[in-house]
Automatic annotation (TrEMBL):
Name of protein: MIP family channel protein
NCBIfam families for this protein: MIP
UniProt cross-references to Pfam families, sorted A to Z: MIP
GO cellular component: plasma membrane
Similarity comment: Belongs to the MIP/aquaporin (TC 1.A.8) family.
Species lineage: Eukaryota, Fungi, Dikarya, Ascomycota, Pezizomycotina
Subcellular localization, as worded in the UniProt entry: Membrane
Transmembrane annotation, as ranges: 99-118, 139-159, 179-202, 239-259, 271-292, 325-348
Recorded GO MF terms: glycerol channel activity; water channel activity
Keywords, ordered alphabetically: Membrane, Repeat, Transmembrane, Transmembrane helix, Transport
Membrane topology: Multi-pass membrane protein
Reactions performed catalytically: glycerol(in) = glycerol(out); H2O(in) = H2O(out)
Gene3D superfamilies, per the entry: Glycerol uptake facilitator protein
Length: 361
């Protein structure tokens, strides 16, 4: 390593010091000198802990300035008239879709992951009480949504939910041509995340189900519900549809309020925390009937994954194609209702259909 390279952190330039050194003795054996020996120089405080302002991290927490040169970034790159490399061009073209993919991936990674951790282990006597409970599941789902917004919000808006995407297209001028591609990216992210969680818990799933070749959707040891939503056994279909619509209307109304500059919008960068509170409240108050999908992609992606993993076509056909009419139709209808209520009674922006100018007399 070049000790004069200014891009290297000072800590990495310090030679390693050992607490003991082996020196040859007259008897041919090594004798050990401790750090306290006068022959061993102690490192000074400034060498071990150099001034914080002089340390440049190897991987900066934020992108470096275009004219700043580091070990990983050359200043002349900003002046180059050559086009970006192929991957950079591809990423630029599909960056918003990538953001939706990875945002939805995070939602399912934490959501399905916590369901597996709690449900698969809570029945065992040695873990019971330590693997989590209903509240922990609600916290993890809410955290997954918040982290998804933090990851994708600055790139694509962070609405990793077809319900919100459709509502924004109808009430805020979000380009309709982008909706299909974004929804596909959301479903793909949920599918890959479900596969990742399944592989992480496949041993526990097999033990819980009663064998590696046993996979069930309903029943005392069914595990499909750890990944996608199911209506409660006692709940009529009309009740399930109403629950999804109510929860989705609440979510969409809150999303519209958080984005309303004329209202008490949260400071920039804190919207994800507000979404955490919203999801925690909705899940705690309205989640027991249907699992509060409110998001067709979050529900369909896991079904695709489990159909590939041996759960069979029943993941789509159970309860008269529940996946279609509750997490999609019910949720989107509820989202439109929530957006309509907010715009009709609270929103004053001119970009809403409710605030369009009156027709000329």
């Amino acid at each position: 390593m070049d000790t004069h390279d200014p891009s290297q952190p000072l800590l990495s330039q310090q030679p390693r010091r050992r607490s003991t050194f082996g020196l040859p003795s007259w008897s041919g054996r090594s004798r050990l000198l401790s750090v306290g020996s006068p022959l061993v120089r102690r490192a000074s405080v400034s060498e071990v802990h150099p001034d914080y302002d002089d340390i440049e991290p190897v991987l900066p927490a934020a992108p470096v300035a275009a004219n700043q040169e580091t070990r990983l970034h050359k200043a002349n790159w900003a002046l180059s008239d050559q086009p970006p490399n192929s991957w950079a061009q591809f990423r630029h073209q599909w960056r918003e879709e990538f953001a939706y993919f990875w945002g939805t991936f995070l939602i399912l990674l934490f959501g399905a992951g916590v369901e597996c951790q709690v449900r698969l282990n809570y029945h065992t006597s040695d873990i019971k009480g330590n693997a989590g409970d209903f509240l922990q599941c609600r916290l993890a789902w809410a955290a997954g949504v918040a982290l998804a917004v933090w990851m994708a919000g600055g790139v694509s808006g962070g609405h990793c939910n077809p319900t919100v995407t459709v509502a924004l297209a109808l009430f805020r001028g979000f380009p309709l041509r982008k909706v299909p591609g974004f929804v596909v990216a959301q479903i793909a992210g949920a599918t890959v995340a479900s596969l990742a969680v399944y592989l992480n818990y496949v041993t526990s799933i097999s033990a819980y189900e009663g064998g590696s070749n046993v996979r069930t959707i309903v029943g005392p040891h069914a595990t499909a519900g750890l990944f996608f939503t199911l209506p409660a056994a006692h709940l009529p279909y009309a009740g399930a549809l109403y629950t999804e619509a109510l929860a989705s209307a609440t979510l969409t109304g809150i999303v519209f309020a958080l984005a309303d500059k004329s209202n008490l919008a949260p400071p920039k960068g804190t919207q994800p925390f507000a979404m955490f509170l919203a999801l925690l409240a909705i899940g705690s108050a309205l989640g027991i009937n249907t699992g509060y999908a409110m998001n067709g992609a979050r529900d369909t992606g896991p079904r695709i994954a489990l159909a590939m993993l041996g759960y069979g076509p029943g993941v789509f056909t159970h309860d008269h194609f529940y996946w279609l009419w509750a997490p999609w139709v019910g949720a989107i209808a509820g989202g439109i209702l929530g957006a309509s209520v907010y715009d009709a009674f609270l929103y004053i922006g001119r970009d809403s259909p409710f605030n369009a100018p009156s027709a000329a007399a």
